[in-house]
Structures are given as C-alpha cells and as structure tokens.
Amino acid sequence: MKGLIVYDSLYGNTEKIALSIGEALGNREEFSIMRVGNVQPDQFADLDLLIIGSPTQRFQPTPAISNLLKGIPKNGLKGVKVTAFDTRLTEEWINKTPVLAFFVRLFGPSAYAAKSMADKLKKKGGKLITPPDGFYVEGTEGPLVQGELERAASWAKKINPSLPKP
Ligand SMILES: Cc1cc2nc3c(=O)[nH]c(=O)nc-3n(C[C@H](O)[C@H](O)[C@H](O)COP(=O)(O)O)c2cc1C
After folding, report:
1. % of the chain with per-residue pLDDT over 70
2. What is the dihedral of CA 2, 56, 145, 50, to 10 degrees?
3. How far, CA to CA in Å, does 99 sit from each of 61, 65, 104?
4. Rounded to whole angstroms, how far apart are CA atoms 3 and 31?
5. Percentage of residues in the chain with pLDDT exceeding 90?
6. How far apart are CA 166 and CA 164, in angstroms?
7. Range list of H helices, the chain
8. pLDDT tens digits, 40-76
9. CB of 53 closer than 6 A to ligand 1?
10. H or E element: which one contains 85?
C-alpha cells in the first residue's frame, strides 16, 4: 500500500492533525507524511491513498495547496483513494468577527477548505474514500480544541478497513 499525506500548516496545528492521522493509519510500508513544499503532483499517480490537509484561510486551502491541486494532470488520480481535511476556527471564534460569521452562514460547508479540496481531488479522478472533515482551533494560531487529535485519529480509522493490511 503506497500512501501519502500532504499538508500545509502556518502555525503547526494542521501538522499535528496530519501526524495523528498518519499514526492512526498504522506504520504501513511506503506511507509518508510530507509538507506541501516537498511534493510534486507527478508523485501522485502510483499512490493507493492520498490525503490532503490544509488550514482554512479566507474560506479556502492555502495558496500552496491550491497550486498543488491545480498542478495534478487531468485523470492524474485515477485509481487513487482520496480524502481531505482542514483546520478551522470554532464557531465561537468565527462569531467574534461578524463578516466572517456572515460568510460562513452563507457558504455553509463550502466556507472551509476540506470540501473544496475533496471536490478537486475527485475532479482529478480520485475516489473519495471517506467524507472530508474539519478540526477546530481556538483562535488563528491555535491551539487545537481539546480532543481534536483523537477525533482525527478516529476519522482516519474509518479509512483503514478499505486499505490492504499493513
Ligand atoms: C490569513 C488567514 C485567514 C483565515 N481565514 C479563516 C477562515 O476563513 N475560516 C476559518 O475558520 N479560519 C480561518 N483562519 C484561521 C485558520 O484556520 C487557522 O489559523 C488554522 O486552522 C491554523 O492551522 P495551522 O496552525 O496549521 O496554520 C484564517 C487564518 C489566517 C492566517
């Protein structure tokens, strides 16, 4: 099983979630966790599993993650199982900024990076293996809300049964 988690992280919170997901997936052969700057989209074609993680910034993934997704060729993820996750502000923090709260209500799930990343992965031919999800931070720099590392691990474990045994 060849798997890859690619993530971006400005303050380290998304990185912690990526590592928790990687650990929950078990120590599999040929499984890597890489920061976005160290990856090229042509490394994806022979993967069994690709997971992308990004902080939500201005309702979207980071520019580096968006560029990476754009760079995947048409049908470049054919036969690859895919999903995505983001980190995002809690409702309490969103509500501290009325403009942000307004747009979050207007856009619904599309106000966060995970759904748009999952849609793009599917558009490139990937097969969505589990619905995208978001993990909460208390304030722009974090920390993660208590329990989110464990929730990320549970999310990852939903992927496990559909993968070949380690
Ligand atoms: C420029 C910028 C824009 C942001 N916009 C949003 C946003 O639209 N919605 C949201 O929930 N959080 C937003 N945030 C908060 C980030 O989601 C938060 O900083 C991130 O989850 C932290 O993850 P990291 O430590 O991996 O960078 C924004 C943060 C930055 C720096």
Report:
1. 97
2. -10
3. 19, 25, 9
4. 5
5. 89
6. 6
7. 13-24, 63-70, 91-94, 98-107, 113-123, 148-157
8. 998 898 999 999 999 999 999 999 999 999 999 999 9
9. no
10. strand 81-89
Distance CA 65, CA 35 (A): 10
Is 70 exceeded by the pLDDT of residue 165?
no
Residues for the chain: how many in total?
Answer: 166
CA–centroid distance, residue 65 to ligand 1 (Å): 14
- Structure tokens belonging to residue 99: 């403009």
Q: Does the C-beta of 89 come closer than 6 Å to ligand 1?
A: yes
Burial readout 60-94 (b: 16 or more C-beta within 10 A, e: otherwise): bbbeebbebbeebeeebbeebbbbbbbbbbeeebb
pLDDT at 166: 59
Stronger pLDDT, 29 or 153, i.e. the higher one:
153
Query: Rounded CA gap, 91 and 105, in Å?
Result: 11
Residue 103: is its pLDDT beyond 80? yes
Give distance in angstroms: CA of 50 to centre of ligand 1: 23
